[in-house]
Amino acid sequence: MHKRHDVNSLLEQVIATLDDHQLLLAGDTVVLGVSGGPDSLCMLHVLRRLAGRYGVTLHAAHLNHGIRGQEADDDARFVQELCASWGIPCAVEHTDVPALAQARGLAIEEAARRARYAFLGTLARSLGGQTVAVAHSADDQVETVLMHLLRGSGLAGLRGMRPLSWVDELRLGEELPEPQQGAQGRIRLVRPLLHVTRREIEAYCVRNALHPRFDRSNLDRTYYRNRLRYELLPLLETYNPNVREVLRRTAEVIAADYELLRQQLAATWPGVVRRESADAIVFGLSALRALPLGLQRSVLREGIHRLRRSLRNINWVHVDDALAIARKGHTGARATLPQGLMLTLGYDEATLSSVDQTPPLGDDRPRLYQGPLPLPVPGRVALPGSAWSVSAKVTAREALPADWETNPDPYIAYLDAMALAFPLALRQREEGDWLCPLGLEGRRQKLRDFLINAKIPRHERATVPLLVAGGEIVWVVGWRVDARYAITSATTQVLVLRCARQDEGK
């Protein structure tokens, strides 16, 4: 049903939003972000009328961004004088947003957003209040959803803004300190006008003789949001005149699905995370791979958020590329993520950490901390200080599994037993080591260069087990065999080598 554009319908709509989402708490001090434009002026007027009904105290707040010179100063004066005439306390602050943007390496819009919410949140905290109210409208919601859609967002972005959220979830970086301990540490962020259109707001201002300020920067189409507002949305309306309502409803549907997924994520997280710190999160690889794709994405996004609290937007492509590595990559494979994060695969773990962060060694790969260790054939030897062992046996070529030539398991090696000089031993690398890696057409390569090319982290190279025969490297365990000892058409007896956790190899 088409809504009537009159005073009562807007007021009733705001009351419904306040009640449905419990946006106002009795006895609370509510900080209202007031720019002086029609949206914030409407919100201020409406909440002034409703303050007694909900038992709240209002405190207006205006931030001068230091961008528009005299016009911005006049806006601040207008808000102060209006609040004084209405008996509402008002705090005004000035921030040099262009300087902040340059110092933080941010776009002007993002720097202004961070400064604005930090100001509002800090003021609420200083007043002992629990709530900040901002005047986002239904049209702002449409633009936000469309921006996230074009950027390539996940469900969190496509659900748009919510009537109730939290200031500390806005990823303001260094602008807002961490919440204090106690009940009032977190500041609620409410949007009473989120279901009211811009047209309804303008009609309300006219009917109530409100005279909002006009911000010329809202016409500047170099700003991304303004281009959506004045160029893209009118174009989309030529395809579907109801496109704004379609986008709003889509956001509501996605918001409900997102809440369900968050509940599932909360239940799943403990079972897929093995270790977690402020610097790294280690996932069980098999547990991660066993999840449905939607939950895999949610788990990885959650990990990124936990390690990079200030990161606001996570591109869908980054997440999907990392998951492709996690699902099919080999040990040592890496995927680059935003803000210097890296996902690194181990034997049965995936570690999310900073690029320059040395992951904890853990026990996700075989490591040799001492040696040499004789390897009997047939027989098994445990790698001291780890849960891994290496076993060896000789078998007839005809007894090999059907997939031995492609050999999908990097921890199993097949060598020509007749080409080897027994006995076998496991040792660490030594100066001057070299091999002829299979696939390099018989060319020699320094072991150091091989380890670097295999992207084995520097701190792990000294503990990579090497299987040697007659002093020659025949297998870099878990990585590559030497081509000189590979199976040929003349091979009849095969040395089968397996590296496994000791409980797996029994």
| Number of strand elements | 22
**Can you name the CATH architecture of the largest domain?**
3-Layer(aba) Sandwich
Structural shape = elongated
What is the percent of helical residues?
25-40%
Q: How much strand content do the residues show? A: 15-25%
Q: Report strand order across the widest sheet.
A: 3-2-1-4-6-5
- Give the quaternary arrangement of the chains: single chain
**Count of discrete structural domains:** 3
What is the level 1 CATH name of the largest domain? Alpha Beta
Describe the structure.
This protein is an alpha+beta fold and 506 residues long. It has three domains: 177 residues, Rossmann fold (3-Layer(aba) Sandwich); 83 residues, Uridine Diphospho-n-acetylenolpyruvylglucosamine Reductase, domain 3 (2-Layer Sandwich); 129 residues, 3-Layer(bba) Sandwich (Phenylalanyl-tRNA Synthetase, Chain B, domain 3), CATH 3.50.40. The strands form five sheets. The protein has a six-stranded mixed beta sheet, with helices on both faces. It has a five-stranded antiparallel beta sheet with strand order 7-8-11-10-9. Strands 12-16-19-20-21 form a five-stranded antiparallel beta sheet, with no helix packed on it. α3 links the parallel β2 and β3. The N terminus is likely disordered.
